Amino acid sequence: MTTINSILTAKGTGLHSGKECKVTLYPYDKQGIYFKFNENVYKALAEDVCDTSRCTMLDLNNNKIQTCEHLLAVIYALNINGILIETSEKEIPTFDGSGKYWLELLKDHIVNNKLDGFEISKPIHVSEDDSFIIAYPSEGFSIEYFLDYNHPLIGTSRFTFNGSIDNFSKYIAPSRTFAFIEEVEYLKANNLALGGNEENCIVVYKDKLSSQLRHKHEFTTHKILDLIGDISLCGMPLDNIKIIANKSGHKLNNLFARKLQNLLGGQ
Ligand SMILES: [Zn+2]
After folding, report:
1. 155, 166, 190, 217: which could form a disulfide with 159 (CB 3.0–4.6 Å)?
2. Using one digit for the tens of pLDDT, what is the confidence trace for 104-143?
3. Spatial CA neighbour of 157 closest among 225, 226, 217, 228
4. Which residues surround ligand 1, an ion (CB under 5 A)?
5. Model pLDDT for residues 62-115, shown as the tens digit of each residue
6. What is the residue-wise DSSP string for 216-261?
7. Closest CA to 67 of 57, 53, 77
8. Ligand 1 midpoint to CA 225 (Å)
């Protein structure tokens, strides 16, 4: 099993609550991602996701926790499969809207004792309208994502994550959250995303972006970051699987993770 070698803490603003959130990460000797509330510990699984409208929100015995996906993606990419997470608020801080901060925090604290990943024996898929995720047995672990937005500054794009930590560190982890100006205006008018600003989100205006992209596929690689975080809740590391996703978001990602969790026996 792979865990961390010391207790790590992080403090930052919650994208949705706007509150300062403190997170403490503990080494843990049980397989899975666990959250601690008071003295109770719960394993987080795909079936515990209660809301996917603006982020991935977990509900663990009535303890709700939002914006888990970027931290979970980094945990997964580092092959950490035993960790305990404690939070001061009901949200994981957003930092710059990517997984970069979490990767920097965790990468030098891994105690690696790799667990064999779970393999699928035949293809599986989920779909909704023209969005879909299909996975089939293959060599290693990879995700190919197809993005398609009817916006001149985004359009169509494709990126393949090859499963390596180098590829993850270079392209996936630093990719920031993005939102269209219409969504931002709606959120502001409804007192939502109180911690959101142009420092932690790329705002897509009609004819410009609020900041320069970190690399040309940043929108697509952020979608891959979200997908990895959502898949991690299937409960086990995966191996020898190729995943192809077309226009999927948190809702479909969670359906896919639930399907994987069911295949694994729901533990
Ligand atoms: Zn995201």
Report:
1. 217
2. 999 999 997 777 889 999 999 999 999 999 999 999 999 9
3. 217
4. 177, 226
5. 999 999 999 999 999 999 999 999 999 999 999 999 999 999 999 999 997 777
6. TTHHHHHHHHHHHHHHGGGSS-B-SEEEEEES--HHHHHHHHHHHH
7. 57
8. 7
